[in-house]
């Protein structure tokens, strides 16, 4: 039986964010994470899935405060959830988490 590999192409902007979030795949996430020097753990993937699910439902990237609430609800980090988000993505939510999850660069957000 022959195995067929299907490769998807994607386009990024000048900062490396996907132009079309619909072209995202887990393989794209792995590639972006590698570029950022991040080895994706189960907790990284939980955040990425949350970002993707929010996008699928609302067609916009989720604000960091909702991701922080998710981390608290999901893992019980309480007041430390904000710090934990930056432990997972040390160069910021927008710079790393949104990019790895395949979001367009949010226009008016800070890095937190």
TrEMBL record:
<dbReference type="Pfam" id="PF04358">
    <property type="entry name" value="DsrC"/>
</dbReference>
<dbReference type="GO" id="GO:0002143">
    <property type="term" value="P:tRNA wobble position uridine thiolation"/>
</dbReference>
<dbReference type="InterPro" id="IPR042072">
    <property type="entry name" value="DsrC-like_C"/>
</dbReference>
<dbReference type="InterPro" id="IPR043163">
    <property type="entry name" value="DsrC-like_N"/>
</dbReference>
<dbReference type="GO" id="GO:0097163">
    <property type="term" value="F:sulfur carrier activity"/>
</dbReference>
<keyword id="KW-0808">Transferase</keyword>
<comment type="similarity">
    <text>Belongs to the dsrC/tusE family.</text>
</comment>
<keyword id="KW-0963">Cytoplasm</keyword>
<dbReference type="InterPro" id="IPR007453">
    <property type="entry name" value="DsrC/TusE"/>
</dbReference>
<comment type="function">
    <text>Part of a sulfur-relay system.</text>
</comment>
<dbReference type="InterPro" id="IPR025526">
    <property type="entry name" value="DsrC-like_dom_sf"/>
</dbReference>
<protein>
    <recommendedName>
        <fullName>Sulfurtransferase</fullName>
        <ecNumber>2.8.1.-</ecNumber>
    </recommendedName>
</protein>
<dbReference type="GO" id="GO:0005737">
    <property type="term" value="C:cytoplasm"/>
</dbReference>
<dbReference type="GO" id="GO:0016740">
    <property type="term" value="F:transferase activity"/>
</dbReference>
